[in-house]
Amino acid sequence: MRKSLLLGLAAGLFLLACKKDTYIAGSNALLGFSSDSVYFDTLFTSTGSITQQVRVYNPNDQKLLITGISLVGGKNSPFLLNINGSPGPIAGNLTLDANDSLYIFISVYINPDAKPEAFIMQDSIRIDYNGNERFIKLSAWGQNAHFLSNQVIRGNISWNNDLPYVISGSLRVDSNAVLSIGPGCRIYFHANAPLLIDGTLLVAGQAEDSLRVYFNGDRLDQPYASYPGSWPGIYFSPASINNVLQYAVLRNGNQSLVAEGPSLDASPKLLLNQCIIDNSLDAGIYGIQSSIEAVNCLISNCGKNIVIAAGGSYHFIQCTAASFSTPVLLHQYPVLTVSDAGQPGSQLPTGDLQAVFSNCILWGDTGIPDEALLSREGSGSFQVLFDHVILKQQNYPQNADSSALLLNTDPLFMSTDNRKGLYDFHLQAGSPALARGADEGIGVDLDGFIRSAGEQDLGCYERQ
Known about the structure:
It contains one helix and 37 strands. With 464 residues, it is mainly beta. The strands form four sheets. Strands 14-16-19-22-25-27-29-32-34-31-28-26-23-20-17 form a 15-stranded parallel beta barrel. Strands 2, 4, 7, 8, 10 and 11 form a six-stranded mixed β-sheet that branches.
């Protein structure tokens, strides 16, 4: 009996092996996909895209013959395929063993001659087997743009918002040159592309969201669209002069704004009005023995929101500097670091320093007890004033003066949801920042709304 049992088992295994070596032929054969649609976010013509993939798998207990995989749009499609290591747009007679799979890799290239406005490109991958047709939908937003690579701007140049601007390599504004950027412009940078200002940068955005001027990395597809450090930032050299940014939004930079060297005339080297600097990997604003004035600005969720080094002259009015740990960037450093030395803790070089924070909020989530780190290394003048400021600080900063300072008083922002990554730095009803500021003569807030006369709300937003 034992012998009969063994023979039966062997026969069963033989039949099972034979079955796996045969092809399933019926139209009811199953074919699985890891996704039935693939979507690419905004791309720029000629720059291509990331590569996405779809896994095609055979859940049957027999082999399956895929007679064809093809792009419906053929060679004219903006989509490019690689099918199990072989370039498309067509592949055929592909055998999938039982419970085995193959991969289709998809990318996009949009013709530079495509129409200039945003548009959607669509196609499908068709898969034929056993008389069946299955489709995987493909779609991508594409956009034409002005492309500038390793260019130097000389003279007076103005940009309008007819098309986005995509910068690769670097873009430098030469000494004595002026780059003027008009309302509604959008500027996107490759990972290796800083904006270097030896002359003057004038950004003239307006309060409406569509008319603000946006600076960002050129990877707009997820998850890269939310990564900090996706482009280097804007650097104002010691030769630069009279720079003004109004209603500008800078996101995902490394050191988003760096100003080095003092002003060469009576005006600040860098004037920021109603600007947002968000999600910088390192510093949102970095002043190196420089001169910066910022009004109604939000510096949010940066590795180091504001860094002042080697002295200089700085005035922040009606600004909010706040950091909370996000899904992609932890809050590990104070929102404000001030030093008269080139590097905090070093001896040389040092310079005279004056920094005034008026009607501001300096706040962060748990983990950092002191959101202001002040370091005096030299023997020169060192003046730091917190005037009508909410400051999260367990240990009062030495070498600082204050007037109407609110310590460790939660400003009650509208939303700081770290888990979902939702942040809104407007003020709730009942916020201690309401009507606690001195009248600085600032008529509007970051949204462009009118500020109340007399006592004004602290921070960049006036509650409406």
